[in-house]
Amino acid sequence: MRSLTKRFGFAFSLAVTILLSAGLELTGVWWTMLVAGFVGGFLIRKLFKAIAVGFLGVLIGWTLYFLAFWMMAPAAVNLAFSLTSLFVVMTLILGGVLGALSGIIGALASLLIFERVEPVATQ
C-alpha cells in the first residue's frame, strides 16, 4: 500500500501530462485535456506543482498538436495563423488554464484519497 502513496517528481508528472494531452487530443474531443491535467496533478500531489504541471502539460500538448497540423499543411496553417493569430494564442492559454485547474483537482483528489488525518482527541 505504501507504493500507492508515493509522490512522483515534477519531470515525470509533466512528461505523463504532455503525453496524455497529446494522445487524448487525437480523439478530437477538447475537454479530454482535463483528464491529462487531472492525472498530472494526481501524480505530483503538491498543489502549486500540480498547477504548473497541468498548465505546462496541456499547453505543450496543444502546441504539439498545432505543430503537427503545421507539418502536415504548412501553407494552410500559415494562412490561418496570419488571419487569426490571436485565436491560436488564446486557445493555448485557455488550454493551459484548464490544465492548471484540473491539475489542482487531481492534486486535491490525491490528497483526499491517500493522506491520513489523525483524529483530534476530544475531552
Fold blueprint:
Blueprint lengths: L9 H16 L7 H12 L2 H26 L1 H10 L1 H30 L9
Helix pairs in contact: 1-2, 1-3, 2-3, 2-5, 3-4, 3-5, 4-5
Describe the structure.
It is a single chain. With 123 residues, the protein is mostly helical. It has one domain. It has 5 helices and no strands. The chain has helices at residues 10-25, 33-44, 47-72, 74-83, 85-114. Helix 1 packs across helix 3 and helix 4 packs across helix 5. The chain starts with 9 loop residues before the first helix and ends in a 9-residue tail after the last helix. The mean pLDDT is 87.
Task: Summarize this structure briefly.
The protein has helices at residues 10-25, 33-44, 47-72, 74-83, 85-114. It is an all-alpha fold and 123 residues long.
Q: Which overall shape is indicated by the principal axes computed on the Cα atoms?
A: elongated
Percentage of residues in DSSP E strands: under 5%
- End-to-end Cα distance, whole Å, is 33 Å
Number of strands: 0
Radius of gyration (CA) equals 18 Å
Domain unit count: 1
Keywords:
0% strand, mainly alpha, 5 helices
